[in-house]
Amino acid sequence: MKKVKSYLKYYSNFTMPSIIFGICFILSKRINIFKVSSDKISTLMDVSASLAGVLLTILTIYLAVPQNKPKKERLRSSYHEYIYLSNILTGIILFFLSIAIWIFLDAATLSTLFFLSGIANMAIATYYTFYLIKLL
Question: Is 92 exposed, middle or buried (0-12, 13-18, 19+ CB in 10 A)?
Fold first, then answer.
């Protein structure tokens, strides 16, 4: 069980958004829950752009904080830094992908699914932000 938990943590940048995407995709096919009007989807894309900006800000804050060398090495050896940075990068990519799908494909449901997947990375990045601030 501990191996599964550590595997999920290490690959959380891919597994959590995939789980969210899969569950929401099944819900959208069965219940048609993500039928969104054009006004609401444009608002959702505004929020998506704002959250991508928040993730960029979180990344900037992390890179600007003075680093304690032994603590930094401990973060690298325990792979927490990799998990943190990969979740931030994946979240930014998912939010921008959501916006690109909305602009070029005009697929509101698919855009909403990528937005919700980005929210999963946002939650993990926020958790690690508070964890690392406490540690550093």
Answer: buried
